[in-house]
Amino acid sequence: MTGAHTDGHGEHDHTHAHDDHDHTHDHEHPHDHDDDHAGHGHSHDHDHKHNHSHPHGGVRGFLYDLFVPHTHDAADSVDDALEASKAGVTAVKVSMFILLGTTLLQLILVWVTGSVALLADTIHNFADALTAVPLWIAFVLGRRLATRRYTFGFGRAEDLAGLFIIFVVALSAVVAGWEAIDRFIHPQPVQNAWWLIAAGLIGFAGNELVAVYRIRVGRKIGSAALVADGVHARLDGITSLSVVLGAIGVLLGFPIADPIIGLLISISILVLLWGTVKSVGARLMDAVDPELLDRVEHRLEHTKGVTGVRSVKLRWAGHRLLGSAIITTDAQTLHDAAHVAEHASEHVRTDLRNLDDFVVTPTPADH
């Protein structure tokens, strides 16, 4: 038996092209597209138990959710690939211009105050705006159709953009730390501390606005790279608040507070970056949330004619999912088994709306 798959959206086109010959399936019997539980004894209302490793509750859980947003791999994301890519491009463009405006305002205030902590924050904000460029390119590339060389399409460009984001964030932390250390060696007075406080608040507001926007859209379309960039912006917002603390220290008569805060900003960026490294790295290693497999298996098991599920595989290509499954069926003919596989594939894609391709291969129950 060969694998069968459907387009997963309402009307079926049962004409399959194989190499140089076409053949059609003439359906002489109706198929019920609803989940038929007869003979299975399954209840469609199910409660999966998931053992997630991330902490919940308390300060630790709050900080984890703040800097490592948990999305369950965005299985309920936008189901149209082109719509998802457009949403990603829009998010990247809007957030980039917001951050460039924030950076420009802060750069002016760096010249007014001479603060190395504000300089570190400004460098980081500019780096965050810069990371929008590869993401923009990645979303545009992701729209391209698969080719004979890139048979899975170009969705992985997003994951490469995620790696670039990590590199830029790490580099900005090193540059900011270097400037802070240099200020320890060659101290300079900080002027207009109240302007410094204003600059820190501007930086926080701009970055948090961008962070909320990027993370929300990233979750919606299932883009780990966009969520990572949103976390990056949130980190920038926290560093901007640190600038405010440095300014307060200067007002209280501790000028050394400015380079200390600048150095702490650099260290905190590197520490908090680890969550983003793990998220993007997991995508590159084809990691998926086990809950997705549970949902796929549940939909397969609740398809009429399916007697068991032998294996399920899923992988991400950018913000879109690809997968396959092997099922057992009590169908008596190859024709009927193909229909069972088609219906099983459709049921799965109804549940996971950003699943672009899902091939189900039927095997005899007594195989």
Primary descriptors:
single chain, 3-stranded mixed β-sheet, 5 strands, two-stranded antiparallel sheet, disordered N terminus, 10 helices, 367 residues, mainly alpha, Alpha-Beta Plaits, Alpha-lytic protease prodomain-like, 2 domains
Short description:
The chain is built from 10 helices and 5 strands; from the N terminus they run E-E-H-H-H-H-H-H-H-H-H-E-E-H-E. It is mainly alpha-helical and 367 residues long.
> Which architecture of the largest domain would the CATH scheme give at its second level?
Up-down Bundle
Unreliable stretches: 1-57, 59-80
Q: Which shape, going by the Cα principal axes?
A: elongated
Q: Order of strands in the sheet with the most strands?
A: 3-4-5
State the helix count. Answer: 10
Please name the CATH topology of the largest domain. Answer: Alpha-lytic protease prodomain-like
What is the total domain count?
2
Mean pLDDT: 75
SSE order: EEHHHHHHHHHEEHE
- Category by helix and strand content: mainly alpha
**Could you tell me the strand content as a percent range?**
5-15%
**Largest sheet properties:** 3 strands, mixed
Radius of gyration: 26 Å
CATH level 1 class label of the largest domain? Mainly Alpha
